Amino acid sequence: MNITFLYQLLKAAKITAILSFLGGTFLLIAYLYFSGAHTILDYGIYYMLMAILVNSILFFTLLITFMHSELKRKKILKSLLLMIINVPIGLCYACVIVSYNVP
User: Given 45, 48, 57, 88, which residue has the most CB atoms within 10 angstroms?
Assistant: First the structure.
């Protein structure tokens, strides 16, 4: 395993996880601030689909790297956990949006 590739992959995973969290949080706050604007909801759905795609690709790349590499396994595992933590956060955001729309 090329060590520079591994470090670039770990850096990309960390940045992607943080940006996914911040982007989702921003859209949720904007949605609540503008009283459930449908335009923001539409952007949020497209953002969520794109984030799922990008995060899934990086997650599975890290997972394959974790299984086949003996280098930096602890760092790879930390990056995997950082990416997984976005899943329950996203589900909580979805619950907030659903409960916000229920009369």
Answer: 48
